[in-house]
Amino acid sequence: MSRAWRSRPRYGRAPPRGPWRRFFDYALTAALFGLLALAAARMDRLAMRREQGAVTVADGDSLTLGTVRIRLRGIDAPEYAQTCTRDGADYACGRMARQALVALTAGRPVTCDGWQKDRYGRLLGDCRAGGVDLNRAQVEAGWAVAYGGFESEEAVARAARRGIWAGSFVQPQEWRRGHRQQPEPRHDPLGSLVNGLREMFRFR
Q1: Which secondary structure element, helix H or strand E, spans residue 64, and what is its range?
Q2: Residue 11 falls within a domain, yes or no?
Q3: Judging by DSSP bridges, how do beta strands 68-72 and 123-129 pair with one another?
Q4: pTM: predicted TM-score of the whole model, two decimal places
């Protein structure tokens, strides 16, 4: 009995990792994240689509070019039926957000670049009308909030009390929840990598 007990191997605790081993682990982790970022950028170039054509504006952050529905990437505008409050009174901020996008696109050629689609089948696009970046312009004017991008532009609009920042409002995603609408998908770089791979191999 005692002999069998003595023959059992003894396992001690693993020796603590030295500073060089920890540095190597951190460097390896950083390198892996770097490779993922490079792969995502590569997918951007491989699967990028460009759409242009006659424009129809649906609301402050979505439009249609020809027959292709497009959601402006990285921003979230009030829904068309949404109201906000300014100077103690309600006003149709959703309609005003749409009017702002209509004014930006009126009489100008519109081009959108993108490659990821949202759950509604819309292309998530970076759009320009002439020389104007529509995504950025909507946030800078205060008619959309940052939603995965354009945080610095939102901070400037908020400080200047432009658009919806001149009063109070419910965040568009919260308004949709209150009206039983599904939340808009936020831009997700890691999810974009997976979707980009799917799109790339589907069109080959």
Answers
A1: strand 62-65
A2: no
A3: parallel
A4: 0.68
Q: Which pLDDT tens digit goes with each residue over 155-176?
A: 999 999 999 999 999 999 999 9
Count the Cβ atoms, other than its own, within 10 Å of residue 56. Answer: 13
- Identify the sign of the CA torsion 58, 60, 66, 71: negative
Q: Give catalytic residue positions.
A: 71, 79, 122
Note the pLDDT of residue 188.
Answer: 45
Q: 113: domain range?
A: 49-190
In a domain, 122, yes or no: yes
- Name the stretches of the chain with pLDDT < 50: 1-2, 4-5, 44, 182-183, 185, 187-204
For 61, half-sphere exposure in the C-beta direction (CA atoms, 13 angstrom radius) is: 28
Report the pLDDT value the prediction gives residue 37, as an integer from 0 to 100: 59
145 occurs within a structural domain: yes
Per-residue pLDDT at 46? 53
Helices H, strands E: what count in the chain?
7, 11
Q: Residue 106 maps to which CATH number?
A: 2.40.50.90
Contact 118, 64 (CB under 8 A): no
- Total count of domains within the chain: 1
Structural domain contains residue 15: no
